[in-house]
Amino acid sequence: MRDLIITLAMVIYGGICLQAQDVSESEDHPLITRYPGATIAWYEEQAFEPYSIAIGPQTGYKTISDWKEVKGKLTRIFYSIPGARSVSEVHLNYENALNKGGFSFLAKGLNKARNVGKQVGDRTWMGTAYAKNPLPPNGDIPLFHGTSTSGGTGYLAGELKRASGNVYVTIASYQYSETEVVVLVDIVETQPMEDDLVSVDPDAMSGAIDRDGKVAIYGLHFDFDKATLKPESKPVLEAIAAVLKKRPQLKVYVVGHTDMKGTLTYNLTLSESRAQAVVDALVKNHGISRARLSPKGVGPLVPVSTNTADTGRKLNRRVELVQQ
After folding, report:
1. Local structure of 154: helix, strand or coil
2. Nearest Cα to 157, choosing from 27, 9, 51, 239?
3. pLDDT digit string (tens) for 92-135?
4. Triad 147, 150, 154: Cα angle to 5°
5. Which residues of 230-255 are buried (b: 16+ CB within 10 A; e: fewer)?
6. Is residue 7 a contact partner of residue 32, using CB atoms and an 8 Å limit?
7. What is the pTM of this model?
């Protein structure tokens, strides 16, 4: 599930602070860094859990009508951010990071002042939104109650579509006091999507290249055991061409990958032939200079998942664009 590992830097203050005083056996999720100066006060991982994402306003007494129900590996991280930070500052920082990371927003809201509002992100709304995903009952997580100087609240819910399974993130921010903001980050990593649900977004592809130096491409279909591109690959080729045309200085290795079926020699040859077929199509049908494209094949040598199951083999069969 690591075809597109995306680290979202906190863009205003940069850098990642040291993890001093974090609760034991906790860590930042590899998908999103902490806000600088934050420490982890509570941490929990659950292997595969249902999770309810509130995406609409409160419509009645402790009632929200609009939800998105998801299932997957759930990671919950509660951060304390001491110092002269405002909830607006923290909330907008995370919003900017998710946006740059290619997430689409399902819901977001910010109320800078102490309130009892029922719109997305308001204080009363927060209590209703998290009732379906309850926090530990011991009271160590002060997300909905603060000091006499407590203030506003903010909420973000985002979705990242990727071939290894969609990722959902919710972020609740709360001005616990004048000198502390607290943040709950919940991350749900779902099961792999079916091939026909993979969408191709040139902007997301370009962003992945900037972040990771590469992007895994799913949706390029070949005849069985051949390097002949099928007609249904056209939208994906068009998306790749759009990235290259928008960035005329970009040069890439076009790298073919296979699963583990067959001999190593056979798969190395097949993967390079398929990479060459992609290059030829981009040159012939989309006007991309051949000098910008270098086909390579690595066969099954760089898997992103297990080769013992169909779902894993499906993820391993891919083409990657790697920035030169």
Report:
1. strand
2. 51
3. 999 999 988 889 999 999 998 888 889 999 989 999 999 998 88
4. 135
5. eeebeebbebbbbbbeebeeeebebb
6. yes
7. 0.57
